[in-house]
């Protein structure tokens, strides 16, 4: 069977050719332009034409790879999430330490102004766009939740957690307060906060004996 690039891959993706390298540079430039612009003008005013101009590519290049500005943004965020999902959460044998390390890194990311503005714009747009909201959850949120579920599963199998614990709810217990604090700005997002969050959640999930 012939080697065939994925439908959303840049042209020339089937080998390490100059065309592929150029296409990947263009793809990265488009991602960077989309994230910068949505943070500056908001989702409603973001256009494919604006992204193309900022990235230095033709708008037809973008339309060849993505059907909409939402698809561009979801892929821009998702490209980083994909690598994270492939690696999985660390498993050093110390569940609390592993969760704290990951959530501390997430705090640093969510507090980065260059990343925070575009992400907030996309979340805000999703509140009024059901299709975008579903895509956002499926492309960005669910893969992250699955990583936490799998790390908790490993801990449960190792006898660290109560055998009857609901892994999905356990993952949401870790992530929901984090998201709430960040989205609603109900408090400062800090390393100390996530350390306390992990300790209190695990206190409820661990074996009673």
Summarize the structure.
Residues 47-66 bind DNA. The protein is mostly helical.
Low-confidence stretches: 1-15
Number of domains: 2
- Based on the coordinates given, report the CATH architecture of the largest domain: Orthogonal Bundle
- Mean pLDDT over all positions: 86
Cα distance spanning the termini: 56 Å
Give the amount of beta strand, in percent: under 5%
> What's the CATH topology label of the largest domain?
Tetracycline Repressor, domain 2
- Provide the gyration radius in Å: 20 Å
The main sheet comes to:
none
SSE string, helices as H and strands as E: HHHHHHHHH
Structural class: mainly alpha
> How many beta-strand segments?
0
Number of helices: 9
CATH class membership of the largest domain: Mainly Alpha
Structural notes for this entry:
Keywords: DNA-binding, Transcription, Transcription regulation. Residues 1-22 are annotated as: Disordered. This is TetR/AcrR family transcriptional regulator. Residues 47-66 bind DNA. It contains nine helices and no strands. The protein has helices at residues 18-41, 48-55, 59-65, 69-87, 95-110, 113-126, 130-157, 167-184, 191-205. Helix 2 (48-55) packs across helix 3 (59-65) and helix 8 runs antiparallel to helix 9.
List keywords for this structure.
209 residues, elongated, Tet_transcr_reg_TetR-rel_C_sf, 2 domains, 71% helix, mainly alpha, Tetracycline Repressor, domain 2, TetR_C, Homeodomain-like_sf, disordered N terminus, Arc Repressor Mutant, subunit A
Task: Set out the fold topology.
Blueprint: H1 18-41, H2 48-55, H3 59-65, H4 69-87, H5 95-110, H6 113-126, H7 130-157, H8 167-184, H9 191-205
Helix pairs in contact: 1-2, 1-4, 1-6, 2-3, 4-7, 5-9, 6-7, 7-8, 8-9
